[in-house]
Amino acid sequence: MINKHSLLVFLFMFFVHLLGFGQDTLKTLTEVNVTSFERLKSKTLEISSQTISREQILLSQPEDVGVILQKFSGVSLKSYGGLGGLKTISVKGLGSNHTTFLVDGFTVSNTQTGQVNLGQVQTDNVESISLSSGGSNSFLLPVSSYMNGSVVSINTFENNFSPQLFNLRFASRLGSFGEIDTYVSTKFSNKNVFFSAFGKYRQANGNYAYSLRNGKMLYEGIRKNNDLLDWYSGISSGFKFKNNSQLRLIYKTNGADQGLPGAVILYNTMANQRLSTEAHSVNIDFTHQYKSFSSRIFGIFNHDWLHYTDAYFLNNTGGISSRYTNNSAQIGASTQRLIGEQSILFGGIESRYSDLSFSTLNSAVPKRLHSFGLIGFNLNKTNWITEAQVSAQQVIEENKTGERAENRFKVNPFLAIEKKEVGTWKWKFKVWYRNSFRMPTFNELYYNSIGNVKLKPEEANQFSIGFSNQPIQKKMDVFFTLNGFANRVENQILAIPTKNLFVWSMQNIGRVTTLGFETRIDVKKQIKKNWSTELNANYTYQYSVDVSSNKSPTYLNQVAYIPRHTSIIEYSLKRKDVGLQVSSTLSSLRYSLNENIVSNQVKGFALFDASIFSKINFQNKHQFRIQFSVKNIFNLPYAYIRYFVMPGRNYLITLNYALR
C-alpha cells in the first residue's frame, strides 16, 4: 500500500529536481508567449481536442459560453432557462464537476456549488474556446486541471499581449424579452507592457411565451420571475522582462440580481425566489524561461457572495433570507524541461484552501485544504507520441459546528499513445486512459436543505480510442474525426432540482457505465474568387446507464438528463464580407429520473437558427460588424430539464466594433 505522505513528498522532490536541473543546456525553447495560453503544446492533439475560433463565435452570436460548448461533440447541455439561466455541461456522460474551466490559464472554480454557471460567462471578449479530454494542450497550467475528465480552456482578448499598440472593442445587442447588452474594452500593448480595462452590462425582463403539453392538454403562458441584471468588469496588466520572464496581474469582478423561475408544475407559474451574487477575483502569475527549462508560479484569490430570498416561504420568520460567503485561495507552480529535440518532462504542485459561511443559525462552517501533485512526460518520437502522468490528491476536511466529510487521498494515472500523421490522407490514431476523482461540494455535503455529509466522492475511469484524417485537401478542405469512448463512474452523485433552481436533491446512485462514440466533420471550400462555404457537423451517441445492481428497478436505465443522441449542424455561405449562416441543434429524449418510464420522459427536439451579417473595414483599422439573428425559427416548445421551459422564437441584433 502506498504511503500517502511519502508520495506527496516524492512529487514535491521531483518538482524541486526539475528546478535544480533546469540550468542544463540541452536545447533552447521558443519564446514563451501568453497571447494565447496554449503554450508549448504537443504537435498533434486534434483527435481528442476541439477548438472554436472568434470568427465562429461571432457567426452564432451565443448569449453565453454554455451555448458555445454545446457545439462540441460529446457535450450535453443542461439549461434551466433562457438568457442568464443556469447552464452546465456533461462531457461524455460525466457530471459537470468532472470538467475543469480555465480562463487565460487560471482555474475558475467554486467549492460551494462545484459548478460554473456558464449562463453568466460572457462571450464578447473570447478569442477561442477549446475542449480537451485526452491529453495536455500545455504543460504550464495548474496541475489540478490535468486530473479531471476534461478541460475547457478559454482565451480572452483582454488579459494577454497584442501586436497592436492600441485596441478598442465595443459590442451592443438588442434582443427579444427586453435584452439590452453592452460591452466595451480597451487595451494598450507594446513589446514589453500591456494594460487593459473592460466592462459589460446586461439586462432582460425574461418574460417569454411558452407552451407546455401535459397529456392531451396544451397550456400556454408567459414565463414569470425571470428578469436578469448582471455585470462584469476588471483591469489587467502584463510585463515582459529581459530575462525571458513575464508577469501578469488581473482583477475581475462580476455580479447579478435575478429572479429564479421555478418549475412549471400543474400550471403553477408563480415563483417569488430571488438570487443576488457578487464575486471578486485576483489572478497573478509569473512565467520564466531559461534555455531548456520553463516554469510558472501563480496565485488565484476569490471572494464570492450569494444572497437567496423567498419572501413567501411558510415559516415562523416570514420567509427565507440566506447569505453565503465563499472564500478561496489557490497557489501553485508548474514546470517543464525539454529533453532531446521534442520530448518534455513536466510536473507541478498546487494547494487550494476554501471556506464557506452561512448566515443561518446552526449551519455548518466547512473548510477544505485540497493539495495536488503531478509528474509526467511527453515522449515525441519519429512516428509516435506517448504521454504519461501520475498525480496525487489529498483533501483535508473540517467543520466547526458538526459532522464533517472524511479526509481523502487518491492517486490518478493517465496514459495516451498517438500515431502521427501517415499517408496522403494524413491518418492519425490515438488511444488513452484516465482515472479521475472529484470530491462532493460544500453544498452537496453541508447545506441544510440538500446536504448529505455521507456522500462518497465520485471516481471515474475513462478509456477512448479514435482516429482522424483529411481525405480531401485540394479542391476543398475536409477534416474527419471519430472517437469511441467507455466510462465507468463509481458513486456517481446525481443532483436533481426540486422546487426551484436553489433547492436540489443529492444522492449517490452507485455505479454508472457509459459507452458511446462521437464523430465530427468539417468542410471548407472556396467556390469562386469571392465566394466561400463551410459546413461543420457532429454527432454523439451516449449509452449511459445505471449498473449499480441487477436487482434495482433502474438497472440498465439511462441516467437522468443524458440524451442518447445529440447533433449539431452549421452551414455558412459568404461573399466577401457578407454572409448567411443556418444551424440546427438536435437532441433525443431524456429522462428526468433514472427510472426510464413514460411519465419521466423529457421530449427530444430539433431547433433551427439563422443569421445574416455584414462586415465593413475602414482604413484597415476600423472594423464594423452587424448581424441579425433569428433563434428557434419554428417557435418549437422544448426543455432540457423537465418543466423548465425554454424560449420560443426570438430575435437579436448585434453591432460589433473593433479598432486596431
Question: How is this structure best summarized?
Answer:
The chain is mainly β and 660 residues long.
Query: pLDDT under 50 segments (min length 5)?
Result: 9-14, 16-45
From the alpha carbons, calculate the radius of gyration and give it in angstroms.
25 Å
Strand content: over 45%
* Chain-averaged pLDDT: 85
| Straight-line distance between termini | 59 Å
Instruction: Compute the number of helices.
Output: 4
E-strand count = 35
Helix/sheet category: mainly beta
Shape by Cα distribution: globular
Largest sheet: 22 strands, antiparallel, barrel
Percent of residues in helical segments? Answer: under 10%
Task: Describe the protein in words.
The chain is mainly beta. It is 5% helix and 56% strand. The chain has 4 helices and 35 strands. The chain has helices at residues 4-20, 54-60, 65-69, 442-446, and strands at 49-53, 75-79, 87-91, 99-103, 106-108, 126-132, 150-156, 166-175, 179-189, 193-204, 209-214, 217-222, 228-241, 245-259, 273-290, 293-310, 320-339, 343-358, 366-380, 384-399, 408-422, 427-438, 458-469, 477-490, 493-497, 504-508, 511-526, 531-546, 565-575, 578-587, 590-591, 601-602, 605-618, 622-631, 650-659. The strands form 6 sheets. The chain has a 22-stranded antiparallel barrel. Strand 21 (408-422) and strand 22 (427-438) form a beta hairpin. The longest helix is centred in the first third of the chain and has 17 residues, at 4-20. The protein is globular, with a radius of gyration of 25 Å. The N and C termini lie far apart (59 Å). Mean pLDDT is 85; it is low at 9-14 and 16-45.
